[in-house]
Amino acid sequence: MIEIATGVFVKRHEELDLNLGLVVGDRECLVIDTGLNDAFAADVRKITPLPWRVVLTHNHWDHVLGTPAFLPCEIWAHENCTVDEEILLGDAKNYPELIPVDPVLVPPTHTFKNHKKFDLGGRTVELHHFGPSHTSHDVVVHVPDVDVVFAGDVVEIGAPVQFGPDATPENWPNVIEQIKRLAPAMVVPGHGTPTAEWT
Ligand SMILES: [Zn+2]
Fold first, then answer.
1. How far does residue 153's CA lie from ligand 1's centre (Å)?
2. Which domain holds residue 6?
3. Is residue 134 part of a domain?
4. pLDDT tens profile 182-191
5. Which of 53, 150, 151, 162 minimizes the number of CB atoms within 10 Å of its CB?
6. Prediction pTM value
7. Rounded-to-integer distance, Cα 169 and Cα 53, Å
8. CATH number for 90
9. Burial of 31: CB neighbours in 10 Å, binned 0-12, 13-18, 19+
10. 63 alpha carbon – ligand 1 mean position (Å)
């Protein structure tokens, strides 16, 4: 876990160059994607004992298969985020050593449409849906007090962007433009090195 700003952590993975996030407030913390397996929940507990809430940037397997280890808690996602075995587990079978033997798919408990704000105690975190791009339901997470954005797979660094069956390439530049308007000092891509130089 790397602390990229005060109370804002990124778990970097050699596997898939994947990033998972954690934002810690005074009263609670927000977990951004749950990863490949149970490991991330244990990593978060090494950082903070505070109650947690999970937000899923999108439903791809490498971002969500760790969710059962966080339950019970609120699982937030965009309203178009579905639990679809084919989408979720399509590629996962190529990485049997990374995922649980019997992966459990956990649907979101709470959804939003365009914008949602959480008060973690002493700091707020904002969820945005800027329209479809990598998927129909990408969530961008903004931590305004430290100017950090978790972009999910809308931004990948060091690898080509991925086009799944529900990607919308024609709207992608618009989504990037709206992320730029947040003026982040640091962008955490779904895969690749967090950086200020992301465009
Ligand atoms: Zn993805």
1. 5
2. 2-191
3. yes
4. 999 999 999 9
5. 162
6. 0.95
7. 30
8. 3.60.15.10
9. buried
10. 7
